[in-house]
Amino acid sequence: MRVARSLDINHVILETDAAQVAYALNSRTYKLDYSSTFVKDCHHLIKEFSSVKFMHAKRSCNKVAHELAKVAMSKDRIKVWVNGGPCEIMAFVMAEKLKIVSGCTN
User: Fold this and answer.
1) Contacts within 8 Å (CB) and 24+ apart, 84-89
2) Is 54 helix (H, G, I), strand (E, B) or coil?
3) What is the mean pLDDT of residues 74-88?
């Protein structure tokens, strides 16, 4: 969210494979014990955007994000890709594009 804000993006849709986290982030009253600090921080950042929506996506339907998270965990420092991405996930990006174009939903 901080990266989106620094790029002057005002309308954001974020996906997570954790359904309870997505629900907690979309709710102003829901408490999630193990990640309540994270949820509270996100709720604070939401105020800086025109619109923010958190969506649940099954991991099997979000292979690109899963692979990107694996790449990020292997890096020593923070990386931000704006136009493109790391070579390690570009094959997954192309596969997702093909599924969308062909109408495949899973």
Assistant:
1) 89/64
2) strand
3) 74
Q: Quick one: which H or E segment has residue 56?
A: strand 51-56
Do residues 88 and 71 touch, judged by C-beta distance below 8 A?
yes
| pLDDT one-digit tens code per residue, 48-61 | 999 999 988 887 77
pTM above 0.70, yes or no: no
Q: Which domain holds residue 77?
A: 60-102
The whole-angstrom separation of Cα 71 and Cα 91 is 13
Compute the distance between CA of residue 75 and CA of residue 57 in angstroms, rounded to an integer. Answer: 25
| Domains in the chain, number | 2
